[in-house]
């Protein structure tokens, strides 16, 4: 038996003094209202209304039960209201600044199809972890090494001119004794200024005999791309990023850096949203090549990572 529906009808019939008005107020037909009240009487074991009069007159038992039924209906209505409010409440998700506007728009639209009001906030890696730990976002795409990642984006080097080779080797940037002109630099975006990407490249730079300044971190993607276009430097980025910038992308010859991400959800964020069904859209935002994996909520509690 639908106890809440039966109590709602019982209260409505009592408040309107009859089954006709009560049924209309409860949004059901009069026969349905009669069956609901009869079922509630059977369930409670006593009649709620006098059957010997034309109007809906409460029995002593009905008068005693009415306040409890009213409270149950009010609590149910409060639950439904809070549930609707929770669905409308934005799910703030900290995302990498490398996500495109179009990718984020598709992610928000897909989330809306699933009844989720997603509010993506582009932030840098350390900031995303901080916001999650502080509870200022309910979820975040955290930068992690490849072996921890749910989404992995291979990185290479982009140049303004076609390099004329299938791969770009960093050793070709080494200055010789007779080399003239400034040393070409490799620019990292803030998204890739994390230990698991920066440190291996730094060790490779040193092993190949490049100068310290030949590996640099840009203030933002615009500044890095400007250096590539103006002086012939190189940009560490994904193939889709290079394409959007009109640059020529090639894999590295010595190594394959990977920009890894996983989804972290705050421990106190409440019931999990349908984020597990947004894996493909998240992958597209991040620039994952080929078939994107389904998202797995792989971190809880907001532990920050490099």
TrEMBL record:
<dbReference type="InterPro" id="IPR036388">
    <property type="entry name" value="WH-like_DNA-bd_sf"/>
</dbReference>
<feature type="domain" description="HTH lysR-type">
    <location>
        <begin position="1"/>
        <end position="59"/>
    </location>
</feature>
<keyword id="KW-0238">DNA-binding</keyword>
<dbReference type="Pfam" id="PF00126">
    <property type="entry name" value="HTH_1"/>
</dbReference>
<keyword id="KW-0804">Transcription</keyword>
<protein>
    <submittedName>
        <fullName>LysR family transcriptional regulator</fullName>
    </submittedName>
</protein>
<dbReference type="InterPro" id="IPR000847">
    <property type="entry name" value="LysR_HTH_N"/>
</dbReference>
<keyword id="KW-0805">Transcription regulation</keyword>
<dbReference type="InterPro" id="IPR036390">
    <property type="entry name" value="WH_DNA-bd_sf"/>
</dbReference>
<comment type="similarity">
    <text>Belongs to the LysR transcriptional regulatory family.</text>
</comment>
């Amino acid at each position: 038996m639908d106890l809440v529906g039966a109590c709602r009808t019982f209260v409505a019939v009592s408040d309107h003094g009859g089954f006709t008005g009560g049924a209309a107020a409860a949004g059901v037909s009069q026969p349905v209202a009669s069956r609901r009240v009869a079922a509630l009487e059977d369930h409670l074991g006593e009649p709620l209304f006098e059957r010997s009069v034309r109007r809906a007159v409460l029995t002593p038992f009905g008068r005693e039960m009415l306040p409890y039924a009213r409270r149950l209906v009010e609590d149910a209505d409060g639950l439904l209201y809070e549930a609707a409010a929770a669905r409308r409440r934005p799910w703030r998700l900290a995302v990498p600044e490398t996500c495109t506007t179009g990718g984020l728009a598709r992610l928000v639209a897909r989330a809306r199809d699933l009844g989720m009001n997603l509010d993506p906030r582009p932030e840098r890696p350390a900031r995303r972890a901080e916001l999650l730990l502080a509870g200022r976002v309910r979820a975040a795409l955290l930068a992690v090494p490849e072996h921890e990642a749910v989404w992995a984006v291979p990185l290479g080097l982009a140049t303004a001119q076609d390099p004329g080779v299938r791969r770009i080797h960093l050793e070709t940037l080494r200055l010789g004794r007779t080399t003239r002109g400034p040393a070409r630099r490799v620019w990292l975006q803030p998204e890739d200024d994390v230990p698991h990407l920066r440190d291996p490249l730094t060790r490779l730079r040193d092993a190949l005999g490049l100068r310290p300044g030949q590996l640099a971190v840009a203030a933002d993607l615009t500044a890095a791309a400007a250096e590539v276009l103006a002086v012939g430097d190189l940009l560490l980025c994904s193939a889709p990023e290079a394409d959007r910038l009109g640059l020529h992308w090639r894999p590295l010859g010595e190594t394959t850096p990977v920009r890894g991400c996983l989804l972290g959800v705050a421990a106190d964020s409440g019931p999990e949203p349908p984020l597990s069904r947004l894996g493909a859209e998240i992958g597209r935002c991040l620039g994952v090549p080929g078939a994107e994996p389904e998202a797995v909520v792989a971190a809880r509690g907001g532990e920050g990572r490099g």
